[in-house]
C-alpha cells in the first residue's frame, strides 16, 4: 500500500478569510441585538 502523506497546502488565506468572516458575523450580531433593544425601548 502507498504511504499516507499529509497535505502541504498553505492554509493562511483560508484562516484569514475565516477570521474576517467571524468578525463580520460578530459585528452583524451585535448590530442586530442593539437594533432589537432599540425597537424594544422606543417602539410603541
UniProtKB/TrEMBL annotation:
InterPro entries: Cyt-C_aa3_sf (IPR036596), Cyt_c_oxidase_su4_bac-aa3 (IPR012422). Keywords: Membrane, Transmembrane, Transmembrane helix. Pfam families: COX4_pro_2 (PF07835). The chain crosses the membrane at residues 21-43. Residues 4-42 form the Cytochrome c oxidase subunit IV bacterial aa3 type domain. This is Aa3-type cytochrome c oxidase subunit IV. It comes from Tritonibacter scottomollicae.
